[in-house]
Amino acid sequence: MTTFEGYLDGHRGTLLNEDMVVVLRNIAEATRQISDKLRSSSLSGLTGATDAINVQGETQKPLDILSNEIMLDACRKSPAVAFAVSEELDAEVLIHPNGEYAMIFDPLDGSSNLDVNVTVGTIFSIIEASSPAEILKNGRCQLAAGYAAYGPQTNLVLAIGNGVQIFTLDERGVYVMTTADAKIAPETKEFAINAARRPSWDDVITEYVDGSIETPGYNMRWIGSMVADTHRIFNRGGIFLYPADRNKPASGGRLRLLYEANPIGFLVEAAGGSAIAGKTAILDIEPTSLHQRVPVIFGSRHEVAKISRAYCVERAIETV
Fold it and tell me: What is the rounded distance in angstroms from the CA atom of residue 86 to the CA atom of residue 136?
């Protein structure tokens, strides 16, 4: 039985230096704390919303604020972390002036589902950054990425350069490896999209969804929590689509590049899947701001390839 601690120790000096081991250990501890808070949130008065609005223009939940503070505390306990970048913060926060990494995170993804007991999660990414100017890097510069999924089980999913590992929190509060090399099935007959946004889809997405619905055996799924939809894809394949809104071209998309799309894209590619933002691979996008939004399409590589080819054809027609 391999624990998370044992896994880190086994890669110390090869894929991980001592500083990175400390960072990842503190992230794991933070997710354990968040999991504990979520289990008792309705008993502790942590449900509902606050009067605060975050930089995204979204109403903060008490657990958004608490989870953000827990993740910030994990940064403070990690001397190698120079900066923290969070969905809940306007700008990067200096943690340790002599640090070498930036920890980038969405402390509680899907928090709008908290009051109905749907799986939510924490998404994180680690990059080298000793100054604010170094934080805006494309996703291929990530050193590690992962997420915790808080549902009937608490799972910690991690990629550090040798595939994707899945750990499950046991009754002792210890993360135990339950999948040593997670792979996303290349074929699928399941897609996840918010059908209510159909009027805003471009022609490529509309044609893909219509074609899938007309193909026997295809099913649509939509949880409304990115981590929950992602975790389903890791377990049984599928494709997730949150495409650009053709009625709001200036916004670029709905999901944030640095702390949602990049870490999930890193994990998906490490598991043999594909992740694109319309016509571009997510991990190739050069960020222009901390809270930049992008369209997101990822999952089983054969399904993503269908959409990618359609965008390439569309681009070719546009250039004629």
Answer: 13
Euclidean distance between CA atoms 120 and 64, whole angstroms: 11
Q: pLDDT tens for residues 245-294?
A: 988 877 789 999 999 999 999 999 999 999 999 889 999 999 999 999 99
The C-alpha atoms of residue 277 and residue 246 are separated, in whole angstroms, by 14
Give the whole-angstrom CA distance, residue 70 versus residue 64: 10
67 Cβ contact list (under 8 Å, min separation 6): 34, 37, 107, 108, 122
Name the CA dihedral angle for 67, 285, 310, 235, rounded to a multiple of 10 degrees: -30
Q: Are 69 and 51 in contact (CB under 8 A)?
A: no
H-type alpha helices, 178-300: 203-214, 226-236, 262-270
Reported as type and span, the H/E element at residue 277 is: strand 274-277
What whole-number distance in Å separates Cα of residue 102 and Cα of residue 100? 7
CB 73 within 8 A of CB 101: no
Rounded to a whole number, what is the largest CA-CA distance in the chain?
63
With 50 as the cut, is the pLDDT of residue 112 above it?
A: yes
pLDDT above 70 covers a percentage of the chain that reads 92
